[in-house]
Amino acid sequence: MACFSTEELASVGVAFDFAARLVQVEPGRAWIESCIDDDLFAAAPFGQDDEAVANGLALMRQWCAGAAGDVDEAVGSLQREWLRLFVGLGAPEASINESYYTEPNSIMFGQSTLSARAAYRAWGLESDRKASEPDDALGIMLAFCAHLVRESLRLGESGDEEASRKPLKAFEDFLVQHMLPWLSAWRYLVKQHAKTDYYRGVGELVFGLERSCAARFGIAFDEGNGSFSYNHRL
């Protein structure tokens, strides 16, 4: 079982919610102005010791510095890139759906979608966009992980340490079963196709956050083959 302090659990929840917004929501003017004016990429709530997290933040800060001179152009550029990378005019260039990487013929709303949906229902959750967006979309998954972490934190703070381990174990299992197997491939596609430092940074930040949490569960990343595996369970 992972070792997180109370403060770290709170930080993981914030970081994963933030990451979910970055990949799932089309960036609008208010969001971009906030990124620039409020220096949202100055630091990460969790995982800043991971090289990819640090690099991702640096890339996004660099983009913000350039975008400040022409926010209108920056908004249009990012919206076009978000659509091209993650939604697609046809096939997305860096799909955020698990099924794209794991299902035969990249079928959407397949077994990966159903399995993710079952995991949410086990915790009393249901996507309000399930008819139009598959449940195995990365943003939904990141938000679900944030929920599990907050639930673990809530139960721990109530004094029920044994109960608090259940959502943390669910977080570990969900990472292993639904997110880590295709994380490296998604990161690679973002690197290959992103034209802005903003989305290059998003790819690095999300990868680094997941890798940092995986390490707490004893799961290591192999740079050679791009896979994750348990250090102590091989």
Please tell me about this protein's structure.
By secondary structure, the protein is mainly α. It has a single domain (6-230), classed as TorD-like (Orthogonal Bundle), CATH 1.10.3480. It has helices at 6-24, 29-37, 51-67, 71-87, 98-102, 111-121, 138-157, 161-193, 197-216, and strands at 219-222, 227-230. Strands 1-2 form a two-stranded antiparallel sheet. A hairpin with a 4-residue loop joins β1 (219-222) and β2. α1 runs antiparallel to α9 (197-216) and α8 runs antiparallel to α9. The chain is globular, with a radius of gyration of 17 Å. 42% of the residues are buried.
Report a brief summary of the structure:
The chain has 234 residues and is mainly alpha-helical. The protein has a single domain (6-230), classed as TorD-like, CATH 1.10.3480.
